[in-house]
Write a structure and sequence with these properties.
This protein has about 450 residues and is an alpha/beta fold. The protein contains 19 helices and 18 strands. The strands form 6 sheets. Strands 2-1-3-6-7 form a 5-stranded parallel sheet, sandwiched between helices. A 5-stranded parallel sheet has the order 9-12-15-8-16. A hairpin with a 2-residue loop joins strand 4 and strand 5.
């Protein structure tokens, strides 16, 4: 890729000489030249520049101050400053303003090419990181929250409004409605998107170690604490922490959580020194926290602090019209993961899913589609690639097959075993049954051989 360089110096002969030296070093470089800061700034407004080499003393201003303006125009560009009269104070200020380096003309001529290589490498790395950040931001944007229902659009509208604030957000809704995806969308829509997004499921960590996981501990603070450990709040400093299943948090830990929300301060386990963080909290629960607070199972002051801004995510049964959209979305994603062509989708396949009561919501739908792609034969997702209970629930007559419910189940298990290459633990996971249940079914249908 062609590198783009800007030379700003009022001495034309020196500028031309420097351009020739650099041109000899790089075949794929485009060099723009300017005799003053105004002309240089105009070039920056017109084209993308990788590295700027700029004199400090120019007819219309000072290169050290120009660094700030250049960085506003092109934040990823690196700037090398040159001066005939090196001053330590200027050099220090130049670096503070964001310059890559500061050189003295004549004395440092042998340093220019090595410094240019280093500056170009830094620019390349910065551009790669920037592209990755854009890709991540796009992946987790609100555009990736699939659905056209009124209820979902209202939730997205609220999410976009609160994203650009630092307010605590409480996401409400049934398990599997996509609360973590929604929390990520809020984070990547916010001014904190360049910082960490840390997710923790409060119900998945035992109450004995949850405090240490969230807030960290000092070595020796309890048995097994062999060294100091940062907590997740500290890891998320400057960014967002997502506390899923907040209703499961032990009462004794809720007071500490309230203090963090109000002051941004906490004590690590075993520490007497306060740790301060700047973290945006998004919490989620499938419980009715207000009722839990009334019954004494959840601190009412913490509930009121968490529910500064609440958003209810609709269940799948509240937006069944979105199911065809979600099916096509998840089929595309899973096909890409499996490195296979996106299949056609039979209408009876969608109809069967459309008529189901989704207790597991979007998560359940996604898992079923993944299994369907594993089991499908040919280039079309048909009804027979769905779990037998959904096929039965669809109440579609298939007179040509003559299959009983037990025969459908038997064939389904056989397909999963073929896919898992006989790995029964993996087959049980895909079937969403216990390993003991699978062995019982294998005996029942004489599939052990």
């Amino acid at each position: 890729m062609t590198k783009k360089l800007l030379l700003i110096d009022d001495e034309e002969k020196l500028r031309q000489l420097l351009a020739r030296i650099i041109q000899l070093e790089w075949d794929d470089i485009e060099i723009s030249q300017a005799s003053n800061l105004k002309a240089g700034l105009q070039i920056l407004k017109q084209k993308e520049i990788d590295v700027i080499i700029c004199d400090v003393k120019l007819p219309d201003g000072n290169g050290v101050e120009f660094v700030l303006e250049a960085k506003k125009q092109q934040p990823l560009a690196e700037i090398l400053l040159m001066t005939a009269y090196g001053q330590i104070a200027d050099g220090v200020q130049a670096i503070k303003n964001g310059a890559f380096d500061y050189m003295t003309k004549g004395d440092d001529n042998n340093k220019i090419i090595p410094l240019l290589y280093k500056a170009m490498e830094k620019v390349d790395l910065a551009k790669k990181v920037h592209r990755l950040e854009q890709q991540v931001g796009k992946k987790y944007a609100f555009d990736q929250v699939i659905g056209e229902s009124k209820e979902l659009k209202e939730a997205i509208s609220l999410g976009k409004k609160v994203a650009h604030t630092d307010s605590t957000v409480l996401l409400l809704g049934e398990t599997g409605t996509g609360k973590e995806v929604f929390a990520q969308a809020i984070h990547y829509e916010s001014d904190r998107k360049g910082k960490a997004f840390v997710a923790v499921n409060c119900s998945a960590i035992s109450k004995d170690i949850l405090e240490s996981e969230l807030f960290g501990h000092l070595a020796g603070s309890f048995t097994g604490a062999l060294k100091d450990k940062k907590g997740l709040f500290e890891e998320a400093n400057g960014g967002t922490i997502f506390l899923d299943e907040m209703g499961e948090m032990p009462l004794e830990l809720q007071a500490k959580m309230l203090r963090v929300l109000e002051t941004g301060e906490f004590l690590k386990v075993g520490d007497s020194k306060v740790t301060r963080v700047n973290v945006r909290v998004i919490a989620a629960t499938n419980r009715e926290l207000e009722k839990e607070a009334e019954e004494g199972h959840f601190r009412s002051d913490l509930f009121y602090r968490l529910s500064v801004f609440s958003i209810k995510l609709p269940s799948l049964k509240e937006r069944t019209g979105d199911i065809p959209l979600l099916v096509r979305h998840f089929v595309g994603i899973q096909a890409a993961k499996m490195n296979r062509k996106v299949p056609k989708i039979a209408q009876d396949y969608i109809s069967a899913l459309d008529g189901r009561l989704w207790k597991g919501n979007v998560r359940e739908l996604k898992n079923i589609i993944e299994r369907s792609l594993i089991l499908m034969e040919g280039d079309t997702l048909e009804l027979d690639s769905l779990p037998y209970d959904i096929q039965q629930g669809a109440q579609l007559e298939q007179p040509s097959s003559g299959l009983s419910l037990s025969e459908v189940e038997k064939r389904h298990i056989q397909k999963v075993l073929v896919h898992s290459k006989g790995n029964k633990a993996e087959a049980a996971r895909l079937l969403e049954i216990g390993i003991a249940t699978l062995y019982r079914k294998l005996d029942e249908y004489k599939l052990n051989n």
